[in-house]
Amino acid sequence: MYTVREGKIEDLPRVLELIKELALYEKAPEQVTNTLELMEKDGFGPNPVYGLYVCEKDETGEIIGIAIYYYRYSTWKGKRMYLEDIVVTESERGNGAGKLLFERVMAKSLEEGCTGMMWQVLDWNEPAINFYKKYGADLEAGWLNAHLQDYEIKALLK
């Protein structure tokens, strides 16, 4: 029904569409400022900072899902895989594409010698929480996300 493969540069327009679909689902479409140019440079340039898997429907070859990951370093645990996002287009959810993508990223983490895998899930996203619970994932409480935007950093460092 589905095939998971490594993403290619020519997949990026569809990848960005799926990212925007996720942002809409998460009630934050205005938060997407990424561009095809940035994704091309950051994922396929001389120093890639993320990896990408796509999930295609076997009968049509249409990309219906993506998984984007990168590596992070934990002072306590060492090299970790960070799953930035899994996105499956709404009409295909619940049919196994997310499972294939998640398991492919898990396998990649082992192939790359990672000591484990990490990701975030919104506390109101019950379908995703239930999906991860099926794997026995530890959903931690007590950690707060922190971030600064580039324009904020520039202002602070002036």
Provide the residue-averaged pLDDT.
95
Give the uncertain stretches in residue-range form: none
What structural category characterises the helix and strand content? alpha+beta
Q: Taking strands numbered 1, 2, ... along the chain, how are they ordered across the largest sheet? A: 1-2-3-4-5
Question: What's the helix count?
Answer: 5
Strand content: 15-25%
User: Helices and strands, in N-to-C order?
Assistant: EHHEEEHEHH
- Distance separating the two termini: 54 Å
> Roughly how many Å is the radius of gyration?
16 Å
Identify the overall geometry. Answer: globular
- In helices, the fraction of residues equals 25-40%
What can be said about the biggest beta sheet?
A: 5 strands, mixed
Strand tally, please? Answer: 5
Pfam families: Acetyltransf_1 (PF00583)
Keywords: Acyltransferase, Transferase
Protein name: GNAT family N-acetyltransferase
How would you describe what is shown here?
It is a single chain. The protein is an alpha+beta fold and 158 residues long. The chain is built from five helices and five strands. It has helices spanning 12-25, 36-44, 97-111, 126-133, 150-157; strands spanning 2-6, 51-57, 63-74, 78-88, 117-118. It has a five-stranded mixed β-sheet. The protein is globular. The mean pLDDT is 95.
Structure at a glance:
The protein has 158 residues and is of the alpha+beta class.
SSE layout and pairings?
Blueprint: E1 2-6, H1 12-25, H2 36-44, E2 51-57, E3 63-74, E4 78-88, H3 97-111, E5 117-118, H4 126-133, H5 150-157
